[in-house]
Amino acid sequence: MRFRTLLIVAGLLAGLPTLAQQNIQVPPSLETAQVLGAGAVVQGAALWVHPTDPANSLFLVADNQVGLLVYRTSGTLLFSQSSEGVAAGVDVQENVQVTGISQSLVMVANPSLQALVAYIVDPTTLGLRGAGLSPISTTGFVPNSVALYVSPTTGRFFAFAGSATGVVAQYELTGQVGDGGVGVTPVRTFDVGDSVVGLAVDDTQRTLYVVEQGNGIWQYGAEPDAADARLLVDGTTGNGGGLDAPLGGVALYTASGARGYLLAVSGGANAVRIYERQPSAHTLRGSFTVAQDGGIDAVDRPRHVVVTNRPLTGFPLGMVAVHDSTNATGGNENFKLVPWQSIATGFTTPLVVDTGNPTTPTDGGTPDAGTGDGGNGGSSPDIPPVAQPGPLPPGYNDNGLNCYCSSVSVPGSVLLVLAGVLLLSRRRPRA
Questions:
Q1: Rounded to two decimals, what is the model's pTM?
Q2: Which of 226, 331, 371, 424 has a Cα-to-Cα distance from 95 of 20 to 30 A?
Q3: Are 225 and 235 in contact (CB under 8 A)?
Q4: Phi/psi of residue 137, each to 5°?
Q5: Cα separations in angstroms, 68 against 44, 115, 327
Q6: What are the tens digits of pLDDT across the range 289-334?
């Protein structure tokens, strides 16, 4: 009996790593108003966090029938920016020098112009205006995604553009945005293979993530002289991976320092998968689905995800926005908004909850004392030092919730099973 007990215990302990990779359900707190275009029109989304007033932060959605849609983080649609054509991707970069002032640059992939188009967010009016930069022509392909990158070593500023043909191009912007003296130089082009459906850049890690439809998530170097060698973060289920096609976007939860997670849409499973942020080992932590809650319907067939660790009104510990293709409560597509802590504390081993500042905070239009061009001959965004970890919420430490557990914790239910097995093993059979 004791030998059998040991076998049972060993079997349960051997299964713990699998148990730690959970698929949890989380309820949404809010949802956005439906997009203006009908059908499968949402092509990307990004978040702009107001430098002084979180209530005035903006959620930006690329609608390929209308243009750029601008929402409050409460879900209310403010306006659409459609004067220059439709939008097929959007990204935000903070701390960009615009005529001597550090501001936030919004870059939109514009299929109408076959170019990338830049805007500036006005933190007072919450409006968008042209950045004084001519559209960046993506000669030879139509852009369907965009990601911005500031090198932490040189301060050089880059824009990546992806396409449905699998081409990814990298452009360097030199000079000062807004003064008409910006130079745009193509520095790199490579072919992913199949259609690009998501881009994200980890500035601190100097890493570019590209989602290739039908294959998986690839990790490339983000520097212009990086080789085209790539590593597979995760593949589709058809290729031995864990992602269920159709695939979608990726996003980074960038906590202070270099902590955080890579989030990726697994559309066929109606889920978002979560991996450790470290480029050397993207350990899978699990996945989550957004369930129906009250009058807000569940997420079906998501294509995009946005995440932030920064406090927002209604989301003091960060927020995740997940795209919903079949919005039952509005008709057209929309996004469901979920508090980050609902996801983080739902796992057996809780995820990090850290509202520390990102490594490139914006000063919201404060005149800058100077610019550092990293020796590249042009003005580029100044890169402040990596932020020190910010204060953690009560009940949290650097590893998340104060459970003081190891990388694989023992679920309470397993402990109960073990206790029961041990007790039974000590009972003697009746005569």
A1: 0.80
A2: 226
A3: no
A4: -70, 130
A5: 10, 14, 19
A6: 999 998 999 999 999 999 999 999 999 999 999 999 999 887 899 9
